[in-house]
Write a structure and sequence with these properties.
single chain; alpha+beta; Endonuclease, Chain A; four-stranded mixed β-sheet; 8 helices; 4 strands; 55% helix
Length: 169
C-alpha cells in the first residue's frame, strides 16, 4: 500500500483552519454588515485609531518604492479588505490591462483602483480615458485622488471602495 504525505483527516483540519473561499466571503460579508451598522463618527474614530498608531505610521514611512499616499491606500486596503486587492503599480512582473498598468486590482472581481496624486495627474481628461479603456475590457474603475485621502478622510475612502466593489462589474 502506498504511503500518502498526509491523511484525509489532517487534510480536512488544514482546510478547516485555512477556510474555504465561501467561508472567507461569508466573513467578509459579516465584516461589511458590522461596519455599516456603526455610526459614521464611530467609523471615523476606529479608522483614525488604527491608522494613526505609531506601528502603522512607521510601516507607512518605511516601505520603499511608492509614494506616501499610495502606501496609505495600500494599508487601508490591506487592513479593511484583506486578501481582496493586489498592489500592482510599479511592481516587478506587474499586470497590464488594456495597455495600462493599474495601481490596485481586485482579486475576484473585475475592479481597479487608480491613485491620482495632485502633481502627477494634471490632465482633467485622464480619468475618462482610463475609464473608457478599462470598461472596454470589462473592468470597473475607481479613482482615489490625493485630496480624497488626505482631506475627506479615510472613512470616506473606505465607503467609496465598498460602493465600487458592491457594483456589478
Amino acid at each position: 500500500m502506498e504511503k500518502t504525505l498526509c491523511s484525509l483527516e489532517s487534510r480536512s483540519k488544514v482546510v478547516a483552519t485555512l477556510g474555504t473561499s465561501e467561508a472567507r466571503v461569508n466573513n467578509s460579508r459579516k465584516q461589511k454588515e458590522f461596519w455599516k451598522s456603526l455610526a459614521s463618527e464611530e467609523q471615523e474614530s476606529r479608522l483614525k485609531a488604527s491608522f494613526l498608531s505609531p506601528r502603522v505610521m512607521g510601516k507607512l514611512r518605511s516601505q520603499p518604492g511608492y509614494l506616501q499616499g499610495q502606501r496609505l491606500l495600500y494599508l487601508i486596503l490591506e487592513e479593511y479588505f484583506p486578501d481582496n486587492w493586489v498592489h500592482n503599480g510599479g511592481q516587478p512582473n506587474s499586470t497590464w490591462i488594456a495597455g495600462l498598468e493599474p495601481d490596485f486590482i481586485h482579486r475576484w472581481k473585475k475592479k481597479i483602483i487608480e491613485y491620482f496624486e495632485i502633481w502627477a495627474h494634471l490632465d482633467p481628461e485622464e480619468e475618462d480615458r482610463k475609464r473608457q479603456r478599462y470598461e472596454g475590457v470589462g473592468y470597473g474603475l475607481l479613482v482615489i485622488r490625493e485630496e480624497d485621502l488626505w482631506v475627506d478622510g479615510i472613512s470616506s475612502v473606505v465607503k467609496k471602495i465598498m460602493e465600487e466593489v458592491s457594483k456589478s462589474a
